[in-house]
């Protein structure tokens, strides 16, 4: 069986960015249901930090990365939606996208429209599909209608800037939080109806002011520990708390009994990988994403580029809240 050389980023144990090591590996032929893809660009995501640090336990050694774009180099038996030479992009489970070349299950890989560059494809698949499932598939009872208020934390980040634009296209009034005035200005420029600098302002007070005391229909919270309690209090009766991350640390255990007096609230903890578990739903969500990107309703903003060998610095900057929009690794 042939083997092909690739560089990859691997950790042998959990820890800080210094654990990220560049290793030389070999890649084989795809098995049934798999493809081999040669990457042109790789996306960086906050989930990579959780997997590196150990917040999300993973078997070791671990090749990190869950997003990339490139050209299909080989196709295993049973794969019908991709062929050799196709431009393609993906958000993948299992991880392993920080590399030149890899074999992975074809069901998570989509053909990339000609109008979308490799860099954009690499930056947007995991983050864009996340914004898609949050805004379109994770709605409060009765759904979201034009004019409704939603609160979206970390609105100037990778997922955040996509969500700001997409929410605006849906007619929603997205209230975005971010950790500096410059980040707030960025979120506003990308479609947030209102912005709150949660480093200097009390976001609960501001949300109540903005909504004339009524609260928001949904909160999309990826910050976790630091924002959880006040986020619940931002909700209107029957509102939906959609937790989807823990950038500040995991949410402490709580009793469901608190949700009644706060207005019969709904709480859900979502992960993209349930939504993209099948090829059909992955493609349907990706088609929706490709449509808003090719129409120009959502622009994918790549604010940071690092070489693969500089991935340690990329992780440091992401964790230190120095990044905005999307970050990619170049090859
Ligand atoms: P971002 O680019 O949004 O970076 C994370 C942001 O979180 C930071 O820029 C920072 O923005 C904010 N933040 C708040 N508190 C902290 C803290 N203590 N340390 C570090 N950052 C903090 O990352 P992504 O776009 O990759 O992901 C956004 C979030 O969504 C992450 O939490 C991620 O895990 C989650 N996610 C969840 C998915 C799911 O399906 N469950 C899928 C994809 C992403 P600021 O300075 O403005 O506060």
UniProtKB/TrEMBL annotation:
GO CC annotations, alphabetized: cytosol
Matches recorded under InterPro entries: ADH-like_C, ADH-like_N, ER, GroES-like_sf, NAD(P)-bd_dom_sf, QOR-like, Quin_OxRdtase/zeta-crystal_CS
Keywords tagged on the record: NADP, Oxidoreductase
Domain of life according to the entry: Bacteria
CDD domains linked to this entry: QOR2
Entry GO MF terms: mRNA 3'-UTR AU-rich region binding; NADPH binding; quinone reductase (NADPH) activity; zinc ion binding
This protein's name: Alcohol dehydrogenase, zinc-binding
């Amino acid at each position: 069986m042939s083997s092909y050389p690739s560089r990859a980023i691997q950790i042998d144990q959990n820890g800080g960015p210094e654990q990220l090591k560049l290793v030389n590996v070999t890649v084989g032929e795809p098995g049934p249901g798999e493809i081999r893809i040669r990457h042109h660009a790789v996306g960086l995501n906050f989930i990579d930090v959780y997997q590196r640090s150990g917040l999300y336990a993973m078997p070791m050694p671990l090749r990190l990365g869950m997003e990339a774009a490139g050209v299909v180099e080989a196709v295993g038996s049973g794969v019908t939606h991709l062929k050799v030479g196709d431009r393609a992009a993906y958000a993948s489970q299992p991880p392993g996208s920080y590399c030149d070349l890899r074999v992975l299950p074809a069901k998570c890989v989509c053909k990339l429209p000609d109008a979308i560059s490799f860099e954009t494809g690499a930056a947007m698949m995991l983050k864009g599909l996340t914004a898609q499932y949050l805004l379109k598939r994770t709605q409060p009872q009765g759904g979201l209608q034009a004019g409704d208020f939603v609160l979206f934390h970390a609105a100037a980040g990778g997922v955040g800037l996509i969500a700001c634009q997409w929410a605006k296209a849906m007619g929603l009034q997205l209230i975005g939080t971010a950790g500096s005035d410059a980040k707030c200005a960025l979120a506003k420029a990308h479609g947030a109806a209102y912005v709150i600098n949660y480093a200097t302002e009390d976001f609960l007070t501001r949300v109540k002011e903005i909504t004339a005391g009524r609260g928001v229909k949904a909160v999309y919270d990826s910050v976790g520990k630091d924002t959880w309690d006040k986020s619940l209090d931002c909700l209107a009766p029957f509102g939906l708390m959609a937790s989807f991350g823990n950038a500040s640390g995991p949410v402490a255990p709580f009793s469901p009994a608190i949700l009644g007096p706060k207005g019969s609230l709904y709480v859900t903890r979502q992960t993209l990988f349930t939504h993209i578990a099948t090829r059909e739903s992955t493609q349907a969500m990706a088609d929706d994403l490709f449509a808003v990107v090719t129409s120009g309703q959502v622009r994918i903003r790549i604010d940071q580029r690092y070489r693969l060998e500089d991935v340690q610095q990329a992780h440091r900057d992401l964790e230190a809240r120095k990044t905005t929009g999307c970050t990619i690794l170049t090859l």
